From TrEMBL:
PANTHER family membership: EXONUCLEASE, POLYMERASE_HISTIDINOL PHOSPHATASE N-TERMINAL DOMAIN-CONTAINING PROTEIN
Coiled coil: none
Record-annotated Polymerase/histidinol phosphatase N-terminal domain positions: 124-186
Entry protein name: Polymerase/histidinol phosphatase N-terminal domain-containing protein
InterPro entries reported for this sequence: PHP_dom, PHP_domain, Pol/His_phosphatase_N, Pol/histidinol_Pase-like
C-alpha cells in the first residue's frame, strides 16, 4: 500500500471555483482510497466538495456528502465509476463552495493498493439468485451474508436477466462477478464475466442454444453447464455445445451431484481435461441451501473478475461444502491444482481443518489410489510418486448427523500428468 498526502490552501478569492490537486497514478494499481480533512483558517466554517478525475474524464463526484471514497477495477463508492486505474496524471477535484476570509487548508490522503504479484486462494459462490429473478434476497442482503461468511466474491446468476449486473458496484469488500443463468426448458448454464452477455435468452431447439452460446462466447463470456444430472432440471441438450466448465456440485450434496462426479471421472479417464466448479444456487432462506454452500476456492493473482475467471479456466479450483470446510494444498513441485506436469517430482497433499472420521481419498485414472480415515482432528500430509498415471484428484468425505451418513466435504480439480515426450 502506497500513501500520498496532498495539502492545498484555498484562498477566499477561489471561492466557487473548482480546484485540481494533481497526483501521479502508478502502474498496476487495483484500488484507490481517498479521504480528506478541511480546516478553516479563520473563525467561520467552510465547505469544500470532493471528486476525482483521471486524464480523460471525471470519474466521480460526491460533493460534500462524503469524507472518503474508493475506486477499484470492479467496484466503487456510489457516485464513482469503477474500472481500470490507468497510469498517468490524475487529480483530486475540490469544489470551493464556502471559504472564510482567512482561507482554509485541505489535507488529502490518497492510498494506492497495488495488484498482488503472488497468487492466493480466494473463496466465493458462483451461483446465486436475487429479487432480480425468482430469489427473495436483495443484492445488498446477498453481499452482507457473503461478507459475514468471509467470501471474497459472488456471482449473481439470475435467470435470463441482466439487471442485477448493473446494480452491484459498491457493496463493501465482496467482489461481484457479472453473471446470468441462461435458463431453458432443456437445461441451464451460467454465463460469466460480461454484464450483457446475450440479447435474447429464448432457445427451443439445438440451433438456437448453439447460437445463444456462440453469442455469449463472442462477447467474452466463460460458460458453465449447471447441475447437468439434476432430478428436476438436468442438461438435456447434447454435450456438443460450446462450454468451459461443469457445475458438478450444486447446493447440498445430492444424487445428482454424485452422478455428475461419476460422469466427470469418466471424462478424465478418457483423457479429457475438464474444469469443475460448484455453487449454492441459493434463492431464499433455507435450512440447507445457503450462500457459500458449496464454496469455490480459486488460486488467483488478484481479486478481480478477469483474474478469478482466468484462474478458474486454468483449473486452479477446489470446492468445500462450506467456507470453513477442509482446506487443501495439493502440489507437485511448482505445479498446483489444475496444472499439467511432466516432472517425476512427488505429489504432495496437505489438508487442514479435518474432523475425526473424515475420509480422504486420492483418486487417479485407475480409481482410488489411497484412502485415509482420520482418527483425530489433526491435519493430513501425504506424498507419493505419479508414475503411470494421467491425473490425480482429491475427495474428502464427512459424516453429517443431519443425514446420518457421509457426504462430500471437499473436492479438488486434478493435477494432470503428461505422458511421453
Amino acid at each position: 500500500m502506497k500513501t500520498l498526502v496532498l495539502t492545498r490552501i484555498i484562498a477566499r478569492e477561489e471561492e466557487l471555483q473548482y480546484i485540481e490537486v494533481p497526483f501521479h497514478m502508478p502502474k498496476s494499481i487495483q484500488k484507490i482510497l481517498v479521504n480528506y480533512e478541511v480546516k478553516s483558517l479563520g473563525q467561520s466554517q467552510c465547505v469544500v466538495d470532493l471528486g476525482i478525475k483521471d486524464f480523460i474524464r471525471v470519474r466521480g463526484w460526491s460533493g460534500g456528502a462524503r469524507r472518503e471514497f474508493y475506486i477499484g477495477k470492479n467496484q466503487a463508492t456510489p457516485g464513482y465509476v469503477s474500472g481500470p486505474l490507468f497510469e498517468g496524471e490524475w487529480s483530486i477535484l475540490l469544489g470551493a463552495y464556502k471559504i472564510p476570509i482567512e482561507g482554509c487548508q485541505v489535507i488529502i490522503t490518497v492510498s494506492l493498493e497495488s495488484e498482488s504479484e503472488e497468487a492466493c486462494w480466494l473463496k466465493g459462490d458462483l451461483h446465486l439468485h436475487s429479487v432480480h429473478s425468482d430469489g427473495s434476497y436483495t443484492i445488498e442482503e446477498n453481499a452482507k451474508i457473503a461478507k459475514e461468511k468471509g467470501l471474497d466474491f459472488i456471482a449473481l446468476t439470475d435467470h435470463n436477466t441482466i439487471s442485477q449486473n448493473y446494480m452491484h458496484e459498491s457493496y463493501g469488500d465482496v467482489l461481484f462477478i457479472p453473471g446470468m443463468e441462461l435458463t431453458t426448458y432443456k437445461g441451464h448454464c451460467n454465463l460469466y464475466g460480461v454484464k450483457d452477455p446475450i440479447k435474447d435468452f429464448r432457445a427451443t431447439n439445438r440451433e438456437e442454444i448453439k447460437n445463444r452460446l456462440q453469442e455469449a462466447r463472442n462477447n467474452g463470456c466463460k460458460i458453465s453447464i449447471n447441475h447437468p444430472f439434476d432430478q428436476y432440471c438436468p442438461w438435456e441438450w447434447d454435450w456438443d455445445v460450446d462450454y468451459d466448465w461443469v457445475e458438478v456440485w450444486n447446493g447440498p450434496w445430492t444424487e445428482g451431484n454424485e452422478r455428475a462426479i461419476h460422469w466427470w471421472q469418466e471424462q478424465l479417464v478418457q483423457g479429457r481435461k475438464l474444469v469443475v466448479v460448484g455453487g449454492s444456487d441459493c434463492h431464499r432462506p433455507h435450512p440447507y441451501v445457503k450462500q457459500g454452500m458449496p464454496t469455490t476456492w480459486v488460486y488467483s493473482h488478484s481479486k478481480s473478475v478477469s483474474s478469478i475467471l482466468d484462474a478458474i479456466h486454468k483449473g486452479h479450483v477446489y470446492l468445500t461444502y462450506d467456507p470453513m470446510g477442509p482446506q487443501m494444498e495439493f502440489t507437485c513441485g511448482l505445479a498446483t491444482i489444475g496444472d499439467t506436469i511432466k516432472t517425476q517430482e512427488k505429489m504432495k497433499l496437505k489438508v487442514n481443518k479435518l474432523q475425526e472420521g473424515d475420509i480422504v481419498k486420492i483418486i487417479s485414472n485407475k480409481g482410488i489410489e489411497q484412502e485415509f480415515k482420520m482418527a483425530n482432528e489433526q491435519g493430513l500430509y501425504q506424498s507419493w510418486h505419479s508414475e503411470g498415471k494421467t491425473f490425480y484428484r482429491v475427495e474428502i468425505w464427512r459424516y453429517f448427523l443431519e443425514v446420518e451418513g457421509y457426504l462430500m466435504a471437499a473436492l479438488s480439480n486434478p493435477i494432470y500428468i503428461q505422458q511421453g515426450e
